[in-house]
Amino acid sequence: MSGAVGDRRVVVIVDDDAAIREILAVAFQAGGFQASAHADAASALDTLDREPMVCCVLLDVVMPGMSGLDALRALNQRGFAAPILMISGSADIPMAVDAIRHGALDFIEKPFDPLRIVARVSEALDAEAARVAARREGVVANATLGDLLTRREREVLALIAEGLSNKEAGRELSISPRTIEVHRARIMEKVGARNAADLVRIVMSHTTA
């Protein structure tokens, strides 16, 4: 279930329970988001490879096939930057610690209030927007690009700075041009670049500093 909004802020919901997917999709749509719901982690990961506007992911822990924790680890290895919230009906402390250690923003037990989850996501996105605004005002000048970017993002940025196209960069890194595009969008958001020219300017300022 999905509903488009102006800026296409997409929340990916992954849960094998159809009722929970429906409830969360409706709640996020009412909150001004677009919802992309999936019954399994594999299809969700495929969506994340193709959709550059994902702002948050909700992962159920226990699902057939790939578990939510396995999907979380996979996203962590990719350097996925958007907030990830885990949801579970049988959570324990070690499980929650494992999730947080691998990059989860929060761990929510079922049953839950869907409106509270929407609020929690909105709070996380507002905090990130504030950090981006601060970088645009010059805070980024006090940090290195290595501090701001994941290893994969640094690799992508290096190729972009050399003038390679998405297709050429993808061939160098053995990933799809669409994935390069996703990484580039996240790099621009992290460093506060408004467009490609702005990104080049920021890269040049760091390399000549």
How does this structure look, described?
This protein has helices at residues 18-30, 41-50, 68-78, 93-101, 114-136, 145-148, 151-161, 166-173, 177-191, 196-207, and strands spanning 10-14, 34-38, 54-60, 84-88, 106-109. It has 209 residues and is of the alpha/beta class. Strands 2-1-3-4-5 form a 5-stranded parallel β-sheet, with helices on both faces. Helix 1 (18-30) packs across helix 5, helix 7 crosses helix 9 (177-191) and helix 8 crosses helix 9. It is globular and about 50 Å long. The chain starts with 9 loop residues before the first strand and ends with a helix. The relative contact order is 0.10.
Fraction of residues in helix: 55-70%
Shape annotation: globular
Largest sheet: 5 strands, parallel
Strand content: 5-15%
The structure class reads alpha/beta
Low confidence ranges: 1-6
Summarize the structure.
With 209 residues, the protein is α/β, with parallel strands linked by helices. 56% of the residues lie in helices and 12% in strands. The chain contains 10 helices and 5 strands.
Give a topology summary.
Layout: E1 10-14, H1 18-30, E2 34-38, H2 41-50, E3 54-60, H3 68-78, E4 84-88, H4 93-101, E5 106-109, H5 114-136, H6 145-148, H7 151-161, H8 166-173, H9 177-191, H10 196-207
Parallel strand pairs: 1-2, 1-3, 3-4, 4-5
Helix pairs in contact: 1-5, 7-8, 7-9, 8-9
Could you list some keywords that capture this structure?
209 residues, alpha/beta, 10 helices
